[in-house]
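Key result, reporting period 2: structure in, sequence out.
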């Protein structure tokens, strides 16, 4: 029975699973995104998010705890150096999982897991958009002055009249009589 066992075992022994998640977490921290199966991505998210939270406060104890999970000096240094600066203001949800479809060989669901603050294309796209403002859904009472301002504004017409094109953009199709092989004459 599997009572109380909420983690996906991923078809591996406990030691193999721990080593695999440690290696995947190190790769995610170093490369900022990795492609894997959906089940592994979901387990990796549960494994790496607490480590990212610990990295926000740089102390010797936190470095040792994170190193005990990652077992890699380079990824620990990268996590406490570059990554922790970018995620400092984020209260959680440091990773994003994007489903990619099924793999060709065995039809396994694949996914891309990435660190949210390191997706440059998405950050640039969001920087161009203006910030959305919240609006009330209820139509409250309008102020008396605002109604007169709207009606007092003159409606401006277009300066130039709209004119339809005189010539069609595409030549007309030839008549059916002109087509070769047409023997039907009326």
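The corresponding designed sequence is given below.
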């Amino acid at each position: 029975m599997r009572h109380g066992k909420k983690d996906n075992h991923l078809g591996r022994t406990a030691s193999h699973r721990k080593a695999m998640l440690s290696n995947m977490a190190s790769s995610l921290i170093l490369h900022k995104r990795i492609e894997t199966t959906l089940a592994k991505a979901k387990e990796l998210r549960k494994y790496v998010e607490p480590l990212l939270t610990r990295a926000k406060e740089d102390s010797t104890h936190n470095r040792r705890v994170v190193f005990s999970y990652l077992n890699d000096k380079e990824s620990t240094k990268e996590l406490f150096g570059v990554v922790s600066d970018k995620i400092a203001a984020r209260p959680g949800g440091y990773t994003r999982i994007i489903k990619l479809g099924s793999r060709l060989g065995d039809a396994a669901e694949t996914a891309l897991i990435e660190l949210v603050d390191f997706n440059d294309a998405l950050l640039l796209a969001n920087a161009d958009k203006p910030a959305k403002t919240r609006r009330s859904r209820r139509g409250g009472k309008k102020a008396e002055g605002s109604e007169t301002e709207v009606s007092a504004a003159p409606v401006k017409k277009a300066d130039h009249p709209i004119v339809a094109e005189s010539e069609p953009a595409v030549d007309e199709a030839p008549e059916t009589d002109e087509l070769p092989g047409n023997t039907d004459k009326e």
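The radius of gyration is 31 Å. Residues 14-120 form a domain with the 50s Ribosomal Protein L17; Chain: A, fold (CATH 3.90.1030.10). This case is discussed further under Risks and Mitigation.
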